[in-house]
Design goal:
The protein is an alpha+beta fold and about 240 residues long. Helices cover about 45% and strands about 10% of the residues. The protein starts with a helix and ends in a 5-residue tail after the last helix. Keywords: Flavoprotein, FMN, NADP, Oxidoreductase.
């Protein structure tokens, strides 16, 4: 097995970091460069990354996200922004129309581009022996974060990435059975028993932060009345009617 495959297959999330560790600037720059080199639709690069090193800003983010104290404790926090402001500038330069809120497609483009850049950053950090964890809950406070960081119109916070020196070793979390996720040539039906078996696998894994069976957690999430916060933010930002 080559080193890249080994790195990818052993990736895990870390939430406990050495608060005194400072990432060398050269490593941080390499992580950012790797993120920017990710695949992108049309090479449009419909995202931006805000590098948050300011402790006060990160303290405010933790105040809004108390379940994610690692935002402050990590060496750096990268905030990934769906960015359709840049393409608006291009459209204005060409004096062309910009019906950005007529379809969900632009939002999908920006989200996908940002996610690809995020994963490149994750693997780049791992290559330096650093740990990281993705923080998606920032979307719950997208409006507040937009004001705090002075995000322009047609931009929206998507997710963050805490990067630092881990102080607690983590195990590689088991994934769903391959046959429930990987399909060849067409979608292949599978029996629910495979999900039940995964529930048992995760119970045996016994991650302390998990308080429910995997299937119950997923069921509860989708049974809850959906939050419209992201929809409201996209409307405010001129990206959704």
């Amino acid at each position: 097995m080559n080193q890249t495959i080994e790195l990818l297959q052993n990736r895990r999330s870390y939430r406990d970091f050495d608060g005194n560790y400072v990432i060398p600037q050269a490593q941080l720059q390499a992580i950012l460069d790797a993120a920017r080199q990710a695949p992108s639709w049309m090479n449009g690069q419909f995202y931006s990354i805000i590098v948050l090193q300011d402790k006060q800003i990160r303290e405010q983010l933790v105040e809004w996200n108390p379940g994610n104290p690692q935002i402050k404790k990590s060496s750096v926090f990268l905030l990934f922004i769906g960015d359709l402001h840049r393409s608006k500038m291009v459209s204005e330069a060409y004096d062309s129309t910009y019906p950005i809120n007529e379809s969900i497609e632009p939002v999908i483009l920006a989200t996908t581009d940002a996610a690809l850049a995020l994963e490149n950053a994750v693997i780049a950090a791992e290559s330096f022996g650093l740990g990281s964890v993705v923080v998606g809950s920032i979307r719950k406070h997208g409006k507040e974060i937009s004001r705090l960081l002075e995000l322009p119109e047609h931009t929206f916070p998507l997710f963050g990435l805490s990067i630092g020196q881990p102080i607690v070793e983590m195990q590689v979390k088991p994934r769903l059975p391959e046959t429930t996720v990987i399909h060849y040539n067409k979608y292949q039906p599978y029996v629910y028993q495979l999900i039940e078996e995964y529930d048992q696998t995760m119970e045996n894994f016994a991650e302390a932060r998990e308080t429910k069976r995997w299937s119950q957690k997923i069921s509860d999430f989708f049974a809850t009345e959906p939050s419209m916060l992201t929809d409201q933010l996209l409307q405010i930002k001129g990206l959704l009617k």
